[in-house]
Amino acid sequence: MSDIQPGLAQPRPLRLATHEPDEVVVGQICLASPDRGPDLLVLVIEVHENHVQALLCTHEHHLATDTDCVLEPWHTEYPRLILVHGDVSGRIWKQRLTRPMGRVNPDLVQRIALRGRGLDFNSSDLGRGRAIQSDSDPRWEWKLEKFRQLRTVQARASELGWKICKFGDADPRER
Hints:
single chain, alpha+beta, SH3 type barrels, 6 strands, 22% strand, globular
């Protein structure tokens, strides 16, 4: 006899992880912790040795622009609708990330990143808003504030092992 009973909530089958539990992979939705201020929700779009490239995520889906994606919980395994800011991206040191709170299929992540770069506006399954037409659109200031928020968790060049040279200086590798 089957264990499935009509009309009752059924237990979900366990999914086997294909990566280590602490490993960061493309498609994870994580919290990023700044030095000061609230944690930010981000979608990992690239993974590098010490850092990730990530897009900012928020719950303000009603303010979406044409470069954003609004994803349903069934796309993300996250309990709420989520707005992925396709044009608000930054490098984040892996140590700033918490455990995953959701996950997006890597193929979908690639399409979200393309939309943020202005290369995919035809996908009907990726919800989106209308374009910002002028500086008087209130979403313009809102979007600038999102860039400021992401800057609080972005990795500094020194954290990434990068060296900053003055403009016009010779390439330090040539010395």
